[in-house]
């Protein structure tokens, strides 16, 4: 009887929004459309998004992922990942006569433009972000002489600037909002004249996923975040969940990585996924949990998302040209039938 009560109380709180953001959706579709339009192989510089399953699925369809532009055969097509690239990468690609499709998320491009603008005005730019992350390498590359990386609150004491009256902070798009505010507060203490970016650099998708998992985490004994280990925004979701009161939290690529031992004494399991994660992987986790008595799923959705981005312009141009050509062929076909 005691067991029955425990079983019936078991539940899952499923966070929403979760999973694909508009920038990831656009980047993944760009690779798929490029494969259809130009045929395999299509080269992609770096993982198009930081998700194992997405990368493996696209590889099966004929995408070849490389680390550097120099690995792409001259004259081929290369897609730049959603995380963005430094201008020098565009130059390298041009030198190798590569046709490029830039799948950089427009919200990353926005931060690049801010960096260019503040560098032109000769500001010292304090870029809050994680050392070595591709997005940070790309953004810094817009103005290498003006950008200093600040990797969290602990890094603030090391920061040096040329002129304290001309300092601005910018950030990576996928950081923890709370930790970034701590970093900014610490920077402001050191540099009282520090100015803020014109609008939020941490994007809408990152913010919304963190708000949703906080609500879920406050009631959860265990939070499972679906996402890959190199996905910054996914890793942040685990940290945010723990910070918001979840007793335990783990990041998994697949349901098969969940350890049964995590469920010991657990009544409520919170579930979410990073911005690069297809929902089919979350469905796998929900099935795995249902098989173990956690079949009651309640969605916790503090807000709706409606953002979408149009495909990269190089691809839109070619898809339009093809559609026009197809219309032309169809017209000829009709003429032929009339004759
Ligand atoms: O490691 P990240 O969270 O930056 O990347 P992701 O590919 O897991 O998610 C999409 C986020 C992008 C492209 C950065 N703005
Ligand atoms: Fe764009 Fe934000 Fe998605 Fe990154 S996480 S791809 S910035 S929408």
Write a concise keyword list for the protein shown above.
single chain, 339 residues, alpha/beta, Rossmann fold, Cobalt-precorrin-4 Transmethylase, domain 1, 3 domains, 12 strands, binds (2E)-4-amino-3-methylbut-2-en-1-yl trihydrogen diphosphate, binds iron/sulfur cluster, 4-hydroxy-3-methylbut-2-enyl diphosphate reductase activity, metal-binding, 4-hydroxy-3-methylbut-2-enyl diphosphate reductase
Distance separating the two termini: 82 Å
The CATH homology group name of the largest domain: 4-hydroxy-3-methylbut-2-enyl diphosphate reductase, catalytic domain
Judging from the principal axes of the Cα atoms, what is the shape?
Answer: flat
Give the total of domains: 3
Topology as H/E string?
Answer: HEHEHEEHEHEHEEHHEHEEHEH
Rg value? 23 Å
Helix content: 40-55%
The CATH level-2 architecture of the largest domain is identified as 3-Layer(aba) Sandwich
| Helix and strand composition category | alpha/beta
Structure report:
- The chain is α/β, with parallel strands linked by helices.
- It folds into 3 domains: 11-20 and 204-300, 4-hydroxy-3-methylbut-2-enyl diphosphate reductase, catalytic domain (Cobalt-precorrin-4 Transmethylase, domain 1), CATH 3.40.1010; 22-104 and 308-328, 3-Layer(aba) Sandwich (Rossmann fold); 107-190, Cobalt-precorrin-4 Transmethylase, domain 1 (3-Layer(aba) Sandwich).
- Helix content is 42%, strand content 16%.
- The strands form 3 sheets. The chain has a 5-stranded parallel beta sheet with strand order 10-9-11-1-12, sandwiched between helices. A 4-stranded parallel beta sheet has the order 3-2-4-5, with helices on both faces. Strands 7-6-8 form a 3-stranded parallel beta sheet, sandwiched between helices.
- The structure holds (2E)-4-amino-3-methylbut-2-en-1-yl trihydrogen diphosphate (10E) and iron/sulfur cluster.
- Residues 21-24, 82, 105, 107-108, 173-174, 203, 205-206, 233, 275 line the site of iron/sulfur cluster (SF4).
